[in-house]
Write a structure and sequence with these properties.
With 190 residues, the protein is an alpha+beta fold. The protein folds into 2 domains: 4-106, 2-Layer Sandwich (Double Stranded RNA Binding Domain), CATH 3.30.160; 119-189. It has helices at residues 22-32, 78-97, 108-153, 158-189, and strands at residues 4-5, 8-9, 39-46, 49-59, 65-71. Helix 1 (22-32) packs parallel to helix 2 (78-97) and helix 3 (108-153) runs antiparallel to helix 4 (158-189). The two termini are 36 Å apart. The relative contact order is 0.09.
């Protein structure tokens, strides 16, 4: 068969991969509109995620200059953040300057894939934060249990003891509900 080569089928997507950088595509767009060199900067960091912003200047078709600027998605690596901001700058040039980019990768499929990756990254960050929150709730539960034991051992004070028991039960239920929600999240994200 013509599509098979060296033990893999080209049509099923398991062949060698070539990465086409959005930064090189942006350079072509900037060149086409006679724009300035793009500037890409670190923008924000949330835990283990990074975000970049970028801009460049280009002559407006009717005269004058336009500043095209964009912020990329929150990403797990610098490379992904750079790709994201470059993609958004290309989209800005398409919207504001009418640039036509002949590349199928800039279509809907790439945007959908990036959104899915972004959602998965957010879910992972949420899960990591959830683990910390559950740890705090478990600490509250243990502290309440210890206070209850101390309160019963010494002079029982009905109102205080009841409040401590209620808080401990609430924390325990929150931990169980949180663990169930975390399991559901992990099943949905994979």
């Amino acid at each position: 068969m013509a599509t098979e080569k060296k033990g893999y089928n080209v049509l099923d997507g398991r062949g060698p991969r070539a990465h086409i950088s959005r930064k090189s595509m942006l350079a072509e767009v900037v060149k086409a509109v006679n724009g300035s060199e793009p500037v890409l900067n670190f923008y924000d960091s949330k835990g283990s995620f990074v975000q970049m912003q970028g801009y460049f200047f280009a002559p407006r078709p009717g005269g004058g200059t336009v500043s095209l600027d964009a912020v990329g998605l929150l990403c797990e690596t610098w490379e992904e953040a750079e790709e994201s901001v470059c993609y958004n700058l290309i989209r800005a040039a398409q919207r504001q300057l009418g640039v036509v980019v002949d590349d199928m990768n800039l279509g809907v499929a790439w945007g959908e894939r990036r959104e899915k990756e972004r959602s998965a990254a957010i879910a992972r960050a949420f899960r990591d934060g959830w683990d910390k929150t559950l740890g705090h709730l478990e600490s509250v539960q243990k502290a309440c249990d210890e206070m209850w034991v101390d309160a019963v051992r010494e002079e029982p004070m009905p109102g205080v003891t009841t409040s401590i028991v209620g808080l401990a039960e609430w924390a325990e239920w929150c931990v169980w509900d949180g663990l169930a929600a975390k399991d559901d999240l992990e099943k949905s994200v994979g």
